[in-house]
Specification:
By secondary structure, the protein is an alpha+beta fold. Helices cover 30% and strands 17% of the residues. The strands form 3 sheets. The protein has a 4-stranded antiparallel beta sheet, with no helix packed on it. A 3-stranded antiparallel beta sheet has the order 5-7-8. Strands 6-9 form a two-stranded antiparallel sheet. Helix 1 packs parallel to helix 3, helix 2 crosses helix 3 and helix 7 packs across helix 8. It is globular and about 60 Å long.
Length: 300
C-alpha cells in the first residue's frame, strides 16, 4: 500500500463515518493505490487527492468499481486538470469520458477572460488589484466589504460561541480555541481567530491570522465530535441508521450523504436504468445518481 497523506486519511474517515462504514477503511485504503494507478499516478495533494480518495470510496461502498463516477473523475480523464503524469487505464478512461473527447491543450487556455468584465462592475472605491481579485472570487461578500469600508464602519463580526442548547460550558469552550499552534508535516504555525462573517449557503467565513498573516477561510460543519477520530453515525433506538435506505427496486438513493445541486429528471419523465437523475455534492465532489431500473420518475 502506498503512503497516504494525513489530510487525505481524515477525509476518507469522515466519508466513511457518514456512511456508518468506518469498518471498511482498510478496503478503501487498498483501493486508493489501484485507482491512482488507473488514473496515471496523480499526486496525492489537493485537488487530485480528493478525486482519487472519493472515487476509491465510491468503488468500495457501491460494491462495483466505477459504478458511480464523480464529475471530477470524468474531468480529470478529459484533461481538465492537466495531463496525467503516467499512463492512464484506457478502459477506465473510456468508461468515465463516454462520448466526450479529452482535450490536448492547456486547460487554462480554455477559460474565458473575466477580469476586464469584472472591472466594469467594480465600485469606484475598489480599484486596486487586490480589490479586483476579491470581487472576482467573492462578488457578494466583496461588494458588502467595499460598501462598509467606504462608510468607515468596517468591523469584524464577533465570534459566536454557543449552540442550540445554550451557551457553551467552560469545558466546551476549551474545545473551541481561538488561538493555538498547529503542526503540519513538521512545520508549526501560530493560528489566531480574529473574527467571523455572515453564514452563506451553510458556510461561515472566519478571519484568521496564520503566523500573523490574515487569511479568510470558510467552514461548513459536517460532523462534530469531541475526539480526533470521527465517530460512527448515530442510530435510533432500533439500532438502525437515521438516514433512510432504499427498500424497493425503484427507490433512488445516493451512495453517500450529500447536497443535491441539480435535478436532471422531472417528475413524470420516463427513464431507463442507468440514466442520470440528479447530481449531488459530497466532500466537495460531484457525482450523478442513476436510475436503478426502467420506469417513470415520481416523488415517494
Amino acid at each position: 500500500m502506498s503512503q497516504i497523506p494525513g489530510g487525505m486519511l481524515s477525509n476518507l474517515a469522515a466519508q466513511l463515518a457518514e456512511q456508518n462504514a468506518l469498518d471498511r477503511m482498510k478496503e478503501v485504503l487498498d483501493e486508493v493505490p489501484r485507482v491512482r494507478k488507473e488514473m496515471g499516478y496523480p499526486p496525492l495533494v489537493t485537488p487530485t487527492s480528493q478525486i482519487v480518495g472519493t472515487q476509491a470510496t465510491l468503488n468500495v461502498l457501491t460494491g462495483e468499481r466505477y459504478k458511480v463516477i464523480t464529475t471530477e473523475t470524468k474531468n480529470y480523464f478529459l484533461g481538465l486538470y492537466g495531463r496525467a503524469p503516467g499512463q492512464v487505464d484506457l478502459d477506465v478512461m473510456a468508461r468515465a469520458t463516454g462520448d466526450e473527447t479529452p482535450i490536448k491543450s492547456r486547460p487554462a487556455d480554455r477559460l474565458d477572460p473575466e477580469l476586464d468584465d469584472a472591472k466594469k462592475e467594480l465600485p469606484e472605491s475598489a480599484q486596486s488589484i487586490e480589490d479586483q481579485l476579491s470581487f472576482v472570487l467573492f462578488p457578494n461578500i466583496a461588494r458588502d466589504f467595499f460598501e462598509a469600508r467606504e462608510k468607515g464602519d468596517l468591523t469584524p463580526e464577533p465570534l459566536e460561541f454557543g449552540s442550540a442548547k445554550g451557551p457553551m460550558t467552560a469545558h466546551e469552550l476549551h474545545l473551541a480555541p481561538v488561538e493555538f499552534n498547529v503542526t503540519v508535516h513538521g512545520e508549526t504555525y501560530h493560528v489566531k481567530v480574529s473574527g467571523s462573517g455572515r453564514k452563506i449557503d451553510g458556510r461561515k467565513p472566519y478571519y484568521i491570522r496564520v503566523n500573523d498573516k490574515l487569511e479568510e477561510v470558510s467552514l461548513e460543519p459536517i460532523q462534530e465530535v469531541l475526539a480526533g477520530v470521527p465517530e460512527s453515525q448515530e442510530t435510533d433506538s432500533g439500532g438502525k441508521p437515521k438516514r433512510p435506505k432504499p427498500s424497493k427496486p425503484g427507490d433512488v438513493a445516493p451512495p453517500m450523504p450529500g447536497r443535491v445541486v441539480k435535478i436532471l429528471a422531472a417528475i413524470g419523465d420516463q427513464v431507463q436504468a442507468g440514466d442520470p437523475l440528479l447530481i449531488i455534492e459530497a466532500m466537495k465532489m460531484e457525482s450523478q445518481v442513476p436510475a436503478p431500473i426502467d420506469g417513470k420518475s415520481r416523488r415517494s
